[in-house]
Write a structure and sequence with these properties.
Layout lengths: L3 E7 L1 H4 L10 H17 L3 E7 L2 H11 L8 H27 L4 E3 L2 H4 L1 E3 L2 E4 L3 H8 L3 E5 L1 E5 L3 E5 L1 H12 L3 E6 L4 E2 L8 E2 L1 E3 H7 L15 H14 L4 E6 L5 H6 L6 E4 L1
Parallel strand pairs: 1-2, 1-9, 2-6, 3-6, 4-7, 9-13, 12-14
Antiparallel strand pairs: 4-5, 7-8, 10-11, 13-14
Length: 266
């Protein structure tokens, strides 16, 4: 992990109960924060930007108001503000867990600093994150609302934010931690996990990758895989890993470079 920058996402399904509105998994957040702290302590050269989904917080309000599809009316802007409020509530729980674990975490909410065009980030003052990294802080981004040139307002998923950051910071790895063990060859039976998918082999199998069973307005597994391969195509040497961090120690192993789920590569 020496002198590399990793983008790590803690999925909304992992850190909240997605079947119970506005319910954080506080014990899981504590456990994950301690694993991140241990990884940082064991690898001083590791640079990390953390992102997290909205789970049972932002997605509830987002679905109610259709925020990701565009914001134009007075009622839609009220919904926009509600989604931001709920996303911030979860972010507060994440930051509290990190700080209690001894990690100097600093939030960088997209709603305050990012402008997109059809959910592609086109403006962001990345220098603030760069200075945070230089100071030894942990920048924390999240799925959040954002102003959008074409849509008025929208929701940027953590993956949308990462798509901008991976280029800005020359990230070497993207880690997507959730509840799903990776990409299954036989979803929903879940008996054959695909350990690695190379870009050249993806087209042959893409029809079998299914979406999420839970409500997720930003898309499920298929969307995540396609988003990651789009980035891998653009950025030489980039890899992405989709894995489950429900079992203690899995996040630590992934940060150390082990393939504990499905590895996506060029």
């Amino acid at each position: 992990m020496t002198n590399e920058l990793i983008l790590l996402k803690l999925g909304g399904s992992l850190i909240t109960d997605k079947d119970k509105d506005y319910t954080p998994r506080l014990d899981k957040l504590k456990e994950l924060s301690l694993e991140i702290k241990a990884a940082q302590d064991s690898a001083p050269g590791l640079s990390l930007i953390l992102g997290h989904g909205s789970g049972s917080f932002g997605h509830v309000a987002a679905k109610k108001h259709g925020t990701r599809n565009g914001v134009h009316t007075k009622e839609q802007w009220l919904g926009f503000a509600e989604v931001r409020y709920q996303a911030a509530e979860l972010n507060r729980h994440v930051l509290q867990s990190l700080l209690e674990a001894g990690i100097p975490a600093l939030p960088f909410p997209p709603s305050a600093s990012m402008i997109s065009d059809r959910r592609k980030v086109i403006h962001h003052n990345a220098e603030t994150i760069r200075r945070a990294l230089k100071a030894g802080l942990l920048p924390v981004v999240q799925g959040d609302v954002a102003f959008d040139d074409s849509l008025g307002g929208t929701i940027l998923s953590t993956e949308d934010v990462f798509a901008f950051l991976v280029a800005e910071f020359s990230a070497s790895r993207i880690l997507l931690a959730g509840l799903e063990a990776g990409v299954w060859e036989d979803f929903p039976a879940r008996t054959r996990l695909v350990k690695q998918i190379r870009l050249a082999d993806y087209e042959a199998m893409r029809g079998g990758i299914q979406g999420s069973a839970s409500t997720d307005v930003t898309g499920g597994m298929k969307a995540k895989v396609e988003e990651m391969f789009a980035l891998i195509q653009k950025h030489k040497g980039l890899t992405a890993q989709i894995f489950a961090a429900e079992e203690p120690g899995q996040l630590t192993r992934a940060l150390r470079g082990e393939n504990v789920g499905t590895l996506l590569s060029s």
